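Morning, I've got a small favour to ask if you have a moment. I'm working through a protein record and want to make sense of it properly. The fold is given in discrete form, as structure tokens running alongside the sequence. Can you walk me through what the tokens say about the fold? Thanks so much in advance, here it is:
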Amino acid sequence: MKEVFDKIHALEELSGYSKHERLVQGFINAIDEKLLRQGDLLPSVNIMIKETGFARETIVKGYKELIDRGIVESKNRMGYFVSSENTNQKLTVALILYAFDSVQETFYNAFRAALTTDVHIDIYFHNHNIEIFETLINKVVGRYGMYVVAPMPHSKTSEILKVLPLNKLLMIDRFEQLEGDFSYIVQEFEKSTYQVLTKLNDTIKHFDELVFFSRPDSDAPKEILESFKRYVSDKKIVHSVKTRYVAGSVEKGKVYFSTNDTQTWMLLKDCKERGFILGKDVGVLSQDDDPIKEIICDGITTYSTDFVLMAKKAANFVLSQEKIKEIVPTVLIRRKSL
């Protein structure tokens, strides 16, 4: 380790370097010259104070910058370790999403495009599984400069997220209450669903029944079902709630409302096979918009938040680290199916 300290001390001869900058650059030089390798344990703060003569605050600040850049990671009660030999990156981000689907892909592509090239992103998926979610959070804590997380609704979520530094956390997509002050860019489900159904009310009333697919174990927000129930009660709409779409069961005169794309594709396939005309024989409303729904069957009516806008705002938070608390509006996109 003496050679590493030599790298830090060597920078004393260069003008314009603060103690903080000498510490950070000294470690970077040691890594670039292979004096330190990924997984190596770094000196404790107390040892660094003794060997460099720097103040504790300077050492802690230096390690923090190296962590933010993804070069160093902090392991609880174990110390600081080299986590990457890529010293060119300026900031690393842990991006934790639900699953790899078209919506999440849209968010990621816009998020990546809005960031500078020296920001490194590692992407993880929890697949709506609370055990996987907890494992991922415990895996990334202390290893990244920023944490952008799409949480899942669960009684354990707030406790799991407590290990992350709130000033480095951005909650996206769905809102889960946490203790303390944190940033979020999310969508809203209850009021927006009711408003969308109300806007479509005159069209829905031309059909015999409104059918909503909602599984009890679904990852879909529960607020959507509650809004559906309130709408059909207020407007006296003939309706039914089914746990899933059964292949071949599509009927004329009904509007089908689904938050699950797999159910929607099955329904559309059956409509095509039976020659049903969307918007006339059968109505279809889908949650979350993407380019496929704009094209398929001459257009599917959707209501959706703007995931590209959400991604751009998330990227701005990562770059500026300015606190944000925002709900991205949900909009109705009317097409041929309803």
